[in-house]
Design brief:
Cyt_P450_B, five-stranded mixed beta sheet, three-stranded antiparallel beta sheet, globular, alpha+beta, 15 helices, Cytochrome p450
């Protein structure tokens, strides 16, 4: 089969190319792809191979060239990327995760549950009060953004300024969010500067919020001295949590609504159950795979899937493909909200890079769908949806619908 340029974000405007991934899994599961403006890369298509690459940080490094598909254009950009633990390898990665883990403890999630439920109730109020909504723009993006903004002390007066920055950074290939198609690094600077303002405010005002906890976090080094996060690291952590939370959660909830509008029989079965089953959340993440891929860089020559990968080669794990692997999932192209077991890799598939915010994302989605299932009887499409132009995130740019309340 002719190669598809998976670096081209226009490829995904018509949807994830699942037919292509199905062919790769069957015929070329570790497939070399030339790259128009880059070095080329190996595309890893099968579930087991993706899990192996994701877990073997010694052979497949995040630190060398970071985890985004596109190479950093300068050493300064690479330096900034490496401030974020997703672009680090152990021991540095282990050290950073220890310092930030207080942001997502079970106790913290329990404290946030009431706030998330209130946000969900407000958003469903807005949904039912409108004759028609663009579910992405008007509803789903606001759930994770409001939650994360409150976590980090972003004043509500700043929300209308900060949310477009987040979307411009995350969806920098989408002209609707980034009209000039400025580079991600250029756009990040504004967001990082704002992060430093939040840190300065938390340092000045004190309190017991997450930022205060990150400022106070300490771990003991081997020599008995103490290590802590720099302000640059905290600002970068804020950015990656906001980006990761807003995009993946927003797209997962919107994916559910598209399915509910197309499958009223399925929606009726779910409403009859009374609440969102945890299996529904897991199947939405598997089915949609909102984070489509991550990149690694090989540290040594080796064999994988019968191919010889050289030190320095770019290796791209396709979560979109792995989560539809026929070798691992029964009937993978069928959406089954009661699928059990469902050990998808939408949150990373184990290893050191398992998503630190996975439990918060699950909680956001479950509580939002609980509110929807309780209060909405039917969704209908009111116009043509539009996919996001992105080679990183799978989701909707626009999803016009109407909702009928109980």
């Amino acid at each position: 089969m002719e190669r598809i340029d998976l670096m081209d974000p226009d490829v995904f405007v018509s949807g994830v190319p699942h037919d292509y991934f199905t062919w790769l899994r069957a015929h070329d599961p570790v497939a070399w792809h030339d790259e128009k403006d880059g070095t080329g890369y190996w595309l890893i298509a099968r579930f087991d191979d993706v899990v192996e690459v994701n877990r073997d940080w010694r052979r497949y490094s995040n630190w060398l060239r970071a985890s985004s598909l596109e190479d950093p254009v300068s050493e300064e950009e690479l330096r900034v990327r490496r401030l974020v633990f997703v672009n680090q390898d152990p021991k540095q990665h282990t050290r950073t995760r220890k310092l930030v883990r207080g942001a997502f403890t079970p106790r913290r999630l329990q404290q946030l549950t009431g706030q998330i439920e209130a946000i969900c109730a407000d958003l469903v109020d807005d949904l039912l009060a409108a004759d028609e909504v663009d579910f992405v723009h008007d509803i789903s993006r606001h759930l994770p953004f409001r939650m994360v903004a409150r976590m980090f002390g972003v004043p509500e007066a700043d929300w209308d300024m900060v949310l477009p920055w987040v979307e411009q950074v995350t969806n920098n290939q989408e002209p609707a969010h980034n009209p000039g198609l400025s580079s991600r690094f250029e756009v990040q600077r504004k967001a990082l500067e704002y992060g430093h303002e939040l840190i300065a405010r938390a340092r000045r005002d004190g309190g017991d919020g997450i930022l205060a906890e990150l400022l106070d976090a300490r771990i003991e080094r081997e020599d008995g001295t103490f290590d802590q996060l720099s302000d640059d690291e905290i600002a970068s952590f804020i950015l990656v949590v906001v980006i990761g939370g807003v995009e993946t959660t927003s797209h997962t909830v919107a994916e559910a609504i598209g399915l509910f509008a197309d499958r009223p029989d399925l929606y009726d079965r779910l409403t009859a159950a009374g609440e969102c089953p945890p299996s529904l959340v897991e199947e939405l993440v598997r089915w949609g795979s909102p984070a489509m891929n991550f990149r690694r860089t090989a540290t040594e020559d080796h064999e994988l899937g019968g191919r010889t990968i050289k030190a320095g080669d770019k290796v791209v794990m396709s979560f979109s493909s792995a989560n539809r692997d026929e070798r691992h999932f029964a009937d993978p192209h069928t959406f089954d909200p009661w699928r059990t077991p469902n050990d998808h890799i939408g949150f990373g598939g184990g290893g050191p890079h398992f998503c630190v915010g996975a439990q918060l994302a699950r909680l956001d989605v479950r509580l939002m769908l609980n509110e929807i299932l309780r209060r909405v009887t039917r969704f209908e499409r009111t116009g043509e949806p539009q996919r996001l132009r992105s080679n990183a995130f799978a989701g909707w740019l626009r999803l016009p619908v109407t909702a009928t309340g109980r």
